[in-house]
Amino acid sequence: MSQDERIRVAIVGAGIAGLTLAVALNALDKDHKITIDLYEAAPELSEIGAGLNVWYRTWQVFRNIGLGDALIPLFDHYPDLKPRVVFEVRKADQKNGFKIVDIMKDGGALRIHRADLQRTLIKHLPLPGSNVIINSPCTLHLSHRLTNYTPISTASISPHSGPVTLHFSDKPPTTCDILIGADGLKSTVRQLFLTRLPDPEKYKPYLEPVWSGTIAYRGLVTKEELREKFPGHRALDLPGVMYIGKHKHTVVYPIGGGKLINVVATIHDKSKDGTTLDGPWNSEATQSEFYDQFVGWEEEFQALINCIKRPTKWALQSLKHLDVFAKGAVFLMGDSAHAMVPHQGAGAGIGIEDAYIFATLLTHPSSPRRFSPQHISHLAHIYNTVRVPRAIAMSKASIKQGYLYILGTPGFEGVREGEDVPKDMLVKIFREVEGNWSWTTSDPEEDRRKAVELLETGMVRL
Ligand SMILES: Cc1cc2nc3c(=O)[nH]c(=O)nc-3n(C[C@H](O)[C@H](O)[C@H](O)COP(=O)(O)OP(=O)(O)OC[C@H]3O[C@@H](n4cnc5c(N)ncnc54)[C@H](O)[C@@H]3O)c2cc1C
Q: FAD-binding domain: which residues (predicted)?
């Protein structure tokens, strides 16, 4: 099939979701019916460093799109279903901190350096001259910030039906058949998409993300330095530690082949939940500022802060629960569709599943080899049917998990930071946390099969 006749997919945003989609399309496109243009606003695909928690469910997606061998050496342990400790949880907002429970999960949590994952995805892009078997040729366009998209003909009936023209700042326009918005939390594609739905007023609250009222201090600790400053520190040997207290919790786990420890320390102010953030959503922070937030916490926790010279500070934002991710030939994916608070460690995982489901649908043998607006519109309905409920459920579960971590659920109203709480109450809370992760070993193929069934039976129609 000549390249001119192929279905032209434009992916806007080369974050985890956009990169995964390009890799998944190439892996599944056995009929060679797709070409990919990947547009990224940044001038280079810089590798951002911090930890990422990958659950066994997400691992299965990576394996199914051919990344298994490349990723296995980068995880902190082999991906299997052995029961493992995910976190030792400690009540740490007091000098004499103590262990509450070990949170166990079959398969544990696979921890990876984000830069390692991103590098692996980039290596597997079907770019000319790469070592990858190329089914769907991909062109990477850096320094391409999308500013608008328009139907190719002004006579076109719907602004969502392909083909569409893409407009960029300082770059000539181009065209595509299908537009994927994988451009993150502040997605331009989402904003354009929602204002062009039949009921744009309804979607005004979804244009911008909202602040969850939580600030996260993030940083990496080298094991070498921690060993020197605090010999025998438990974070040196454990697969994960969670330090909790009233309104605050911190997640700590090793990444980067065990040399580094990822630290994410959060502080929640319920009165700010749902408000719009005033000021930058991420910035540099000082060690002393970080320290001041955790005065009186147990010594081993403070030792971690002591090893983070240049922490960063992030306002955790999320998107209200959007009920439509696709229409016509425009699809939203990853944070662009469903940015969520990170308390289930699943935001990227859900974006990876979006990519997998979309790639499955478009490459399925019953999807035509040429672009058909009616068929793509049909795929949009299936994508909404399968992805919207999954993402909303996970976003809700993430919010709930966050309140459990910080003793923000009923029964803990009177508790203040640093106060003793009966251990049995704490154990109960963290057993609930453990139970809320039961989905992590479930099979992503169930959603994939559901999508394929809807496609084959034509049960979701315009
Ligand atoms: C503290 C914290 C911890 C987290 N931990 C986890 C975890 O353990 N596990 C997990 O699964 N998830 C986690 N997440 C969530 C995860 O980081 C995100 O869900 C994920 O990175 C989103 O990926 P994305 O590709 O959708 O968006 P992004 O990574 O934001 O990528 C979007 C890309 O689009 C580009 N772009 C933006 N606008 C334009 C434009 N107009 N034109 C062209 N390009 C554009 C950007 O430059 C960027 O490269 C965490 C989040 C936070 C904040």
A: 322-364
